[in-house]
Amino acid sequence: MSSTSKSIYSRARGDEKHQRLDITIQEAGPGGLRMKVDAEMNEVGILFRLCAVLYSYHWNIQGARIYTPGPNAISDEFHIVTGEDPTAMNEDSMRGLIDDLERLLFGGVSVLEYLTEHHARVPAKERESSEGGGDVVLLKQGQQSVIEVTAVDRPGLLLSLSQAFYLMDINISEGEITTQPDGAVWNRFAVDPADKRFQSPEFQRRLREELKVLF
Question: What is the 3-state secondary structure (H, E, C) of 81-104?
């Protein structure tokens, strides 16, 4: 990653520390950016909101690291590339994206309302897609439950996954997303250890079914 900063943005709302939002965007190789988001808030659906903004700006997530440094904080990093539109990563686009992130994180705007404003929607699996395009594995590592998802990459896949987590009220505490050159995607999500639903075989079955339909 280049050490030259493409754009740095930081905003704090007076003494309302729970609404702090710091965003850093740096160059990361040809046609790529690395965006780091630190905010003093943490609740179910944060990843869904972040992915919705990136998707609406046609920023394709090639990799990500999701981290919760404390009970009321997030520290997420995304490696992003765009398609053929050279204006997708200009200064105006980045400024608009950052403003939209602030709206969704602190402005009370719902994801579906936001996507409607941008004439977008959560992408669904193409009907002609072949079956067996992905897999879901639930693991137990110590006291923490882990969801591993492998699939073939497509625009909006992480948005679809994060929507499923939001609708099932699953709080992601950590995550790692990796995209290989051949388009294979590996996603690993650690969930809130306090969520006892993962002890239920019925809940595990339902979760697998909800995620498998995305492939």
Answer: EECCCHHHHCHHHHHHHHHHHHHH
